[in-house]
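It is worth pausing here to work through a concrete case rather than discussing structure prediction in the abstract. The textbook approach is simple: state the sequence, then state the predicted structure, then interpret. We follow exactly that order.
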Amino acid sequence: MRRLLAALLLTACPAGAQEVSDLIARDGLSGARAALEAQVPAPDRDLALATTRFLGGIEAAFHARHRIGATDPLVPLPLLGASLPPNPDPQPMTADFITAMMRDLSVAMQDTRDALPDAPATLILDLRDLWLDVDGDGTRGAGEDLIALAALPPPEGGAQIRFDGADIHWLRAYTHLIEGVATLILAFDPEPALAGRIALDAALADQFAQPPGQMARAPTFDSQAQAFGPVLDRIAVVLQTLRQQPDPALTRAAGDHLRAMVAANRLFWAEVAQETDNDREWIPNEAQDAALGFDLPPGTGPLWLSILEEVDQALEGRMLIPHWRMAPGHGVDLAMWLDDPRPVDVIDWLQGSAALPYARPGLTVGRDNWDRFVDSLGGRAGLYMLLLN
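Step two, the predicted structure:
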């Protein structure tokens, strides 16, 4: 009876702040998520549940890649650009691989937002407790630590972070960023390009299965094929996908998500600026210290917001994207393309002819804010872009 009462109390009471971190370390994200879903809703529990759903979506994307042996970086995009532990026994890739992964990611991001609390909440996580079950075997293996998968430097000192009310907006912003990118990929439909890649692999396998005969004396390109083939395959899939007619409903939805990302970031930085505590901060204001030991130069928040403001204005069509062939005071209206997109031929866009239907006179996005951001952070600018989203 005492065990039953203890179990009922555990279900009825939200897990303590550190208990969530311990749950993830012991039972993985799926186990922690199941335990949290069984608890009575409360702000702290809801933030913890949203976090497990967010990380679970990333875990599922990594597992999908690992399952087919796509463990090397695919393209320089979030999730697709991470290195994963090797898979000695991969399954064949199907043409809907990327489509299914992007759809699942979109669902996970929406599920995360659905769980986020409206009231202030607190969640304490130790980054050393966090791991993603990349190979799907239910146990924590080498190379599955979140710190390693995210290519983060080892924490200097403590790795415990106290997420609070402001960080709810940060997480919401990140869900919109990831879903915006996923929706844009879905708008172009990569399935035909991947089907062509699979057909090429099958044809080449048939060729190499045949006896070489007299042609055995011909030059062999095995080393070149092994070195450059996978890279060219990825480039071809990207270029062929971009030549697809995008779905306007999805390009508009992608723009909506990116604007929502900017809006959530504004709320995040506004609340961070008002904080007076200094307790294991994720992203600190200028009077606080980051729990992970990194330093943000003074003015980072306002500077990042100024960059996001230009992103928002470009998404709304109030500012234009400069093009190297166009005269000063002319640029590309991104909002016009999002509303009425055409296929993207990279050469034609670089040359300028494909940009003309979306070109008009107006104020263009400048480089001043971006240059100041890069100058202030130096070689760490890319890492901080991912951190700040």
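Step three, interpretation. Residues 15-205+232-288 form one domain. The CA atoms of residues 117 and 124 lie 16 Å apart.
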